[in-house]
Structure formats: structure tokens, C-alpha cells
Amino acid sequence: MKKIYSIIVLLFALALPMYGQDIKARLVIDDVDRVKVEVNYKDYPGIVNGLNIIPVEPGTTVGIVAREGCVLKSVVCSDESGYTSEEFIQENVRCEIRFYSDYNETYTVVSASTADARSGKCTLTVDDASKIKVERSGSHSLVELADGSNTVAFDPATESELTITPLDKPIYKICVDGEDITASSDYNYVVKVSEGTEINVEANYPDKKYNLTFNLNGHGAEDFIRGVDIDGKPVFDYMEPDFMVQAGAEVKIYGRTDEYEVDSFTVNGKTATFFNPFAFIMTTDAEIDITVHRFDSFVMTLCVDNPARVKAYRGYSYNGDELELVAGENEVEIRRDIPIISFVPAEMCYIATAEVDGYVYEADELKVSPFMIGLLTDGSRIDITTGDIVRDKKALVYINDLSVAEGYFSLLRSDRTAIDGLTEGYNTIEFYDGDNAFTLQTGAPVDSYVYLNDEVCDAIFPDSNDYSVSLADGDVVKVFYGEIPYTRLVNVEIEDGLEVTLMADHIRPVDVAAGSFRALDRTHVTVSAPEGSVVALDGTVMQAEADGVHSFTVTGDHSLKVSRPMGIGDVETDCDAPAVWYNLQGIRVENPTAPGLYIVNGKKVRK
Fold this sequence. Notes:
The chain is 3% helix and 46% strand. The protein has a 5-stranded mixed beta sheet. Strands 12-10-17-14-15 form a 5-stranded mixed beta sheet, with no helix packed on it. It has a 5-stranded mixed beta sheet with strand order 21-18-26-23-24, with no helix packed on it.
């Protein structure tokens, strides 16, 4: 049984294409003076008439290319079983074949000179050849034209259509074998040609005028047309019964589609779609029928406490249809097709409350501008109260290594406006409660870690770089890039009776009575103690800054000690001796600048 299984596997393997072996491209070329061969887009030398066998690697592209002035008539693939298929030829001049394996297939190439292939002839007469372009199908080659009669050669097999395109205005008229034809699309004409076809193109318009007539139907329809332009210039007598337009002129009709709905629109009895503006070229008398109806409206009440703080728009704010409001109740007219009022707060103002027919909107819903209220009906009532934005609260934002997040970091208020100017280190921001919740976007090529008052903040959802943060007055937000900061322990020892104030992050008070506190790495700490107090960090006396405050940055676990100065009064010394300064621990100090108590050799000891 095992032997039979092995034979089956061997037969199956033999049936598979031999991807690892050499592959041969077999090409039968009819005339190397008309055809060249490329292998991976490089000319392959030594091609001969008849069979050419070219060794190739898997994935090789073999190109069969017609030389200049020649075309490929066909490329036919055949195998040993007699099966044949015709390969696709690009624009009559190029055929590409990709080889992945060898199935003993042969590709037979038939070519011809372009002149011989274009055995078909038709006649194209044009009054102004500079205004049209004519292209053969298949090869997409352009036909050279002159004013008057032109004989156009084409390949009946591959170039059986001509595409005639205007280069300026739409073509006035095209006749094929004595019959007028219409444009296929975008003012282009596709003409099927055969031996002897006669095409007459009138690119120029006749020097005559045509009647333009408007029939407007529906209540108030006479106001539907906002204006009419002829070749870009407005005209005003277009409703007169004898109004005429020069042939070839472009007519544009502007309608009040914001006030009317178009029920039907026809040009010379043919239904069309009214786009605003509707444009066409005068080629004959034109009778335009338009049936419209005005959008209905209804009346409702809008009550606003201070119209200077908010703008209201009928429909969508971008349409600019602003409602004129007074403080208190306003009776306003709204269209039934767009039963919406949009509100946009004035600068440094906000919408405090909004109530519609008993429904009260949540505060978060009011923060998006424009704030829109829809589904309004007859008799609806909207009550809006507003307020002035007073950003009287402060918070700090600390950012570590901001350079790695350039172009990624942003802090957005609830209305999605950004707080600009944030830099590395501590930043003070001003806000009011309506700015909450803030969105902190920390996206960067490295990991980020966010803390609020030294407590870890979670992203909005896993693997997100966005954080939602609601701030209170005095809060501190910290962002660290590339590393997780350690939480450090700072032990505090204060001599009894001393009034000492500790602040973390410039604005967060520290409870000194607790005897210790915890803080993240890089936290800035300030110590305010009575004048002359000795402040020591990890056993080393700190020098006070110009304002008498001591400060340090948390870099590990620390020990902070604050004590009274030594009780030393005035000491008489030798005034003639050189001045030598010592602090109260007996350590010599060179040129001290910080205020405090010192012992000076040769001078009085003073604070």
C-alpha cells in the first residue's frame, strides 16, 4: 500500500508546472522589420523571422512591439492540443505576455505596415479643423485634418470608430451619410465608419439668432428664475416673447432652488435635470418649460436671553440665512423642508441651556458649534440662555520630551478648539468649567504615559493615544514620552513650631503634617520657611533663591529637613583680619548671596 501511495504522489508532482525549471518563450514572428521583442522592457537582440525560442525566468514579461509605422494585427497562442486563444493588443502596437511556467505554448505574431492595415477609407469634411480633434478607436491615434475635405484611412478590424471632440465650444452640427447625429456624452461624438462613410462637421455656428422662450408654471413660479446669463453676461429681458440669442452662445439659467422645488423641467419637450445653474449652447430655437412649487413654511417661537451672545440661522449656518433676534420672544418663520435652526455662540460666549418643547439638552450637546435643533414643527418653542466665557481657573500641564511628539501633541477643549503655545516642561492654562472635558492627543512614534495629579489616566479606549481629562482649579496633568516615571517617597521632618509650606508642581499644596508625601519623577517642589531656617535635602543644606524660597526637583526618594537656625548673637572679632564667611554648620561659604544667618570673621555676625 505504501508503494502505491508513493507512485500516486510522484504522478501528481509530475503533473504540476515546473516552476523551478527554465521556461521558454516560443514566438513565431512574421516580419522582424515590423516587430521587435522586449524581455522585461529591454530590447531582445537576434530575433528572426519564424520561430524564436527565448529562455526566461518565472515572472518575466515578454513584450511584442510594433515598430514605428507598423501595427500588430494579431497575437495567437496555441498549444500541442490544438487549443488557441488571441492575446490582447494595446492600441494595436503592443502585446505583453507574463511567463510563470512552461506549457509548451507558441505565440504566432501577424503584423502589417500601418498604411497596409488601414485599408478602409472614409471622408470627413470640416469647416474649421482647428476647433475639433478626431481620434481612431483601438490605436487612439489622432487624424491629421485640414479645413475642407479629408480622406481618413482606418483599419476596419480595429479602428471602426472615430471619436470627434470639440476643442472650444460644442460642435454645431455633425451629419453622417446625410443624417444629423447627436453627441454621445460630454459633447463628444462617436461615429461608426466603414468603407465610403461620409462625415460632415460644422464646427462653426451660423451667423443667426434663435428664439429663447420660458414657460413657468406653479404658484409664485414667476420668481423662480434668479437670473439669466448669455456668454457670461447677465440679461434682463429674457421673459419677453421675442427674446433671441445668437447661435453658439452659452445660456446659463440661475434658479431659486433654496426657495422652490423643481417638479419638472424640459427643453424642447425633452426632460432634463435642473442643476443650478443650468447651462446649454444655443443651436436652435429653445423652449424651456419649468414647473415648480415654493417650499412651505411655518411659524414658531424662539426665546433668547441675550442675542449679542449667540447667532441663530434658519436651516444650516453655512447658508448664512441669519435670523434677526431681540432679547426675549421672537416669532420666526421656518421652512418645512429644512425644519432646523442652527446656533453659533459669539466669541468668548457659550450656550448655557437649551430647551425645545419641554426637552432639555445635556450640557455636552451644547458645546459643539454650530449647535443645531431639528424636527421643528408649527408652534414649537425654543428657549436659549447664554453666558460669557470667563476662564478664571488655572491648571498646569507638564510635558516631558515634547520633541519626540512634534506635530502629534495637542490639547483640545470640549468644543474641539486647541490650546496653542504649549512647550516642554510646565505650562499654565486658563479654563472655565465649560471647557471640560479636555481631549489630550499624545500620538507619537514612542509610547506616552498620562497622569492627573500623579494618578494614572487611562486612554479613551485600548491602544488609543487620546485621553479625556476633566480639570478642576489647581489640577496638574503630566505627559511623559518614552518612559514610565517612578513614584518617589519624600520624607519630611520639620522642627516643632516652624511654619513651613510645601508646594508640588508649583500649585499643589503638600500636607506637611503627614510626615511624607509621594511624587512622580521630575516633580518641582518648593519649600517656604521662616527667614533664617535651615533647609536640608538628603543631608545637604540648600541655598534659598532670591525670593527666599527653596526648591528642588524630585529625582528619587528624598529626605527633607527644616530646622531653626543656631542661637548665636553678635560676636566681636578682629576687624583687621580678612573676611571669612561660614554658615551655621561651620562650613566655609565663598561670597554668599542667599539671605540667612552667617558667621563672618572680622565683622559682626548678622542676619
